Amino acid sequence: xxxxVTAAILIAFVFALIFFGQLWMITLVAALVAELAIxxxxxxxxxxxxxSGHPTRLPAWWMLAGAALLFVTxxxxxxxxxxxxxxxxxxxxxxxxxxxxxxxxRVLPDTAQGLFGLIYIAYPLTLVPLLWKQEDGPALVLxxxxxxxxxxxxxxxxxxxxxxxxxxxxxxxxxxxxxxLASIAxxxxxxxxxxxxxxxxxxRGNTALHIxxxxxxxxxxAVVLNVAAQIGDLLESAIKRGVxxxxxxxxxxxxxxxxxxxxxxxxxxxxxxxxxxxxxxxGLGRF
Length: 287
What we know:
Helix content: over 70%
Shape: globular
Oligomer: single chain
Largest sheet: 2 strands, antiparallel
Number of helices: 9
């Protein structure tokens, strides 16, 4: 019951934010989620270091400030290309901090862990407000969320009740091929429903869910996003399994941690961004 109630509250909040929020609200919420997920990432890194007998000295101030700065560079008054030099500068700051303050055998692994944390968590979440502010951005973000959520729900239900063949037993023993295929089908079905609703609303003059790309492109995009989401889920499971923990945290009742809930989104959002760039480059039109 906790899982259902938590999910219902989160879904209602995200829907309201997508359609009634402002860019600054979406940026602020995405940044807050990133900060909480990075805090969990730090705990995972510390747990792994403690288990291995090599304590990490990754500074929390650098991780949290670095994530916030990446979101600042995603604001409209900053050029989009500013993120890379800012990320590079942050890396050199951490490199220098580690080089003069920690044992030399920890300089490379701790610096790499810090850079990875920002690229893995903060950067993908900065893309959410960037996607939202695109033309027909609310529909784009909703499409992304629906593909991720419905795929996850289908995988959970079918995998739990009908799953037989293990998908990646060394990483996530409970995931099955049956659940994976059901996840793809769930995302495609959900995408189709979004397209139907979009068509009905547009016919009535409501462009809140306006989608212009051909149906086959939308359904293909749903498959691509689902595969990316599943891989993102598995990769976060690999991190947790390597560290030796079941959940990234306990912030969300019935769901574990923040990182557990956004692991699929962390790969699906960049894939959607890259897909849009590719569509633009090939002249395939907008979403």
